């Protein structure tokens, strides 16, 4: 059985009009299977339910109907088997980089001395050796996001859930963190579910790219992405400028194009109501 299974998952919310019994459907009949160790990227137009899908998998909300299974068991709440990284760093400002990573370990019952050691190892993994004692305000945006990633990895979750983690960063920092994430994924074998607006980011990172429809969100198509030398030394600019990369980018762009137009139309209609 797959590591993660979405079975006909629907999520509705009450509409703004509290008197109305009508529900707003954010996700409708999501079926998705993710294998252990897979890197799956979810793309879709704004408001199609990407974050809702990740929140459901993180156990932060419950499906209105359908089931989400992790290792064959229904997800009923958050757990240490899943680490979540959001767009905003969500670091504790009064703690150092090391203290923030240790924080992730406190809930796991790792003894204090080992916590420090483990936190150092994970800061090293994300290239932050030498910055252990800095507070978040003394770190750049990219470094803060690295701390957040180290914190999520330190308690060794099987699954890493990432909701546009690099969206707030400048292009160069984003690309270098993409490289780092690929390296970490190859080294640790985690299952990663990653949400982005960026088609290039999706092609660069994903083994599978799930393209969603505009609201209510459904999985429109799953595009398997594989490059000849993937997993080898073929990275960075070589990969981004290859003809295969351009082909995948175009394929996903074409799948998204109509959905984005429809989402914009829906937004306009809502604004005029
Ligand atoms: N708690 C909530 N109550 C009511 N509506 C909600 C709630 N959470 C999300 N929604 C609505 O559900 C829809 C999907 O939201 P979601 O944030 O999952 O989309 P998204 O694809 O992640 O969007 P974006 O790409 O803009 O971040 C949106 O229309 C949003 O307004």
TrEMBL record:
ABC transporter domain location is 4-239
Kindly give the Pfam families that the UniProt entry links to this protein: ABC_tran
- Provenance organism: Streptomyces virginiae
Q: Which GO terms describe its molecular function?
A: ATP binding
SMART domains, per the entry: AAA
What InterPro entries would the database entry show?
AAA+_ATPase (IPR003593), ABC_transporter-like_ATP-bd (IPR003439), ABC_transporter-like_CS (IPR017871), ABC_transporter_ATP-bind (IPR050166), P-loop_NTPase (IPR027417)
Q: What is this protein called?
A: ABC transporter ATP-binding protein
Keywords attached to this Swiss-Prot or TrEMBL record, sorted alphabetically, are:
ATP-binding, Nucleotide-binding, Transport
Q: Quote the Gene3D superfamilies the UniProt record gives.
A: P-loop containing nucleotide triphosphate hydrolases
């Amino acid at each position: 059985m797959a590591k993660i299974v979405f079975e006909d998952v629907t999520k509705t919310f009450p509409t703004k009009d509290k008197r109305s019994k009508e529900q707003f459907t954010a996700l409708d009949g999501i079926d998705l299977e993710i294998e252990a160790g897979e890197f799956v990227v979810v793309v879709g137009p704004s408001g199609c339910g990407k974050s809702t899908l990740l929140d459901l998998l993180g156990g932060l909300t419950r499906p209105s109907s359908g089931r989400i299974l992790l290792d064959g068991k229904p997800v009923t709440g958050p757990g240490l088997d899943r680490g979540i990284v959001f767009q905003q760093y969500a670091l504790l400002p009064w703690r150092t980089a090391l203290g923030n990573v240790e924080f992730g370990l406190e809930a796991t019952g790792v003894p204090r001395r080992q916590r420090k050691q483990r936190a150092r190892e994970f800061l090293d993994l994300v290239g932050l050796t030498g910055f252990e004692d800095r507070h978040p305000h003394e770190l750049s945006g990219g470094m803060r996001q690295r701390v957040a990633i180290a914190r999520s990895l330190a308690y060794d979750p099987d699954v890493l859930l990432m909701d546009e983690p690099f969206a707030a960063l400048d292009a160069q920092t984003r690309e270098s963190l993409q490289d780092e994430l690929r390296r970490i994924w190859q080294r640790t074998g985690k299952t990663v579910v990653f949400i982005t607006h960026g088609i290039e980011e999706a092609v660069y990172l994903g083994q599978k790219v799930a393209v969603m429809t505009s609201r209510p969100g459904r999985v429109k198509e799953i595009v398997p992405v594989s490059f000849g030398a993937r997993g080898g030394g073929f990275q960075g600019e070589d990969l981004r400028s290859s003809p295969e990369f351009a082909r995948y980018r175009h394929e996903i762009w074409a799948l998204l194009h109509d959905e984005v137009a429809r989402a914009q139309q829906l937004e306009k209609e809502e604004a005029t109501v």
